[in-house]
Amino acid sequence: MNFFLSPFEQFITDAFLALNFTYVDFTITNVTVVFFILLTSLFYVGLILREPNTNSLHPIPTIVDGHFHLAYIAIQSILEKHVAVRYYQQVMFPLTFSLGIFLLILNLGGNLPLFMSLTSQFAIISAFSLPTIFGIFFWQVEERGLTFFRTFHAPGMSSALAITLFPIEILTYVMRPVSIICRLCSNIMSGHIIAKVCLHTIFALGQSKGSSSIILSLLVSVLVFKLVPLLILEVAVSVIQVYVFLVIFCMFLADTFGHHYRH
User: Fold this and answer.
1) Phi-psi region at 159: left, alpha or beta (left = phi > 0; alpha = psi -120 to 50)
2) Beta bridge pairs of residue 20
3) Residue 3: inside a domain, yes or no?
4) Is residue 19 part of a domain?
5) Is residue 201 part of a domain?
6) What's the number of domains the chain is made of?
7) Separation of alpha carbons 185 and 177, rounded Å
8) 10-residue averages of pLDDT along the chain (263 residues)
């Protein structure tokens, strides 16, 4: 019996319970189930981090507290490196930190057995990143007005060169959020497809008629041993892609707030 029909099978959204109303669709899918499990797990992690008697953090940090502190330092250093204005560093840190932790949970959750890789879905990544990006954009347009377009003009540039580069700068600014989504989706999906192909090959060889031969058994054993570092690499990629996502996001912030230190 073949359980793995296609490497893309894990990226298909399946409906478990159809709840269609007149104007609203509350259909429960495998995406909904995975989201519920991950958010419930995050809630219980928050309970573990708190002292039950005082309802505050433990006076002696636990291992989980230490990892959260390391994530705090890492994200703060990314903001300080790419966003030069300290005011905007403080304003954007809670949003950037929440976005990074949420993305890390989704990436790592996709590596668990029988879990759907949520960050391999273009629509899911867009749903939690684009509202944030557009919100920052409209906030700056409302705050700065027409002076927002000074971001796309470098001081000291001649008028002819500025007119030529102006549409290119705008296109670069617009495409940066799109590149964030495409980069994350493609990297997560490609890694999971490779792992799925290896698993499919192992199961196919194990179910073949000559599976009792010594050569075939050795081949399956080699593939299994090669699969272990591949799965470890997938976990590392899940963490690295969060870093890459936050770096590009902070570069977008730097372009959005750039007039403060360009002029």
Assistant:
1) alpha
2) 25
3) no
4) yes
5) yes
6) 1
7) 13
8) 55 75 77 82 75 62 73 86 80 86 85 79 81 84 77 72 80 82 84 79 69 70 79 86 88 74 45
Instruction: Give the model's pLDDT for residue 201.
Output: 76
| Host domain of residue 145 | 9-262
Nearest residue to 184 via CA among 82, 114, 100: 100
Q: How many helices (H) and strands (E) does the chain have?
A: 7, 4
Residue linked to tokens 């590009």: 248
Q: What is the pLDDT of residue 261?
A: 46
Q: Is 4 among the domain residues? A: no
pLDDT given for residue 262 in this prediction: 46
Distance, C-alpha 200 to centroid of its chain? 26
Distance of CA 126 to the CA centre of its chain: 10
Tokens coding 66:
């230490």
Looking at residue 54, what is its pLDDT? Answer: 62
Which residue pairs from 95-101 have beta carbons closer than 8 angstroms and sit at least 24 positions apart in sequence?
95/132, 96/246, 96/249, 96/250, 97/71, 97/72, 99/128, 99/129, 99/132, 99/246, 99/249, 100/71, 100/75, 100/242, 100/245, 100/246, 101/71
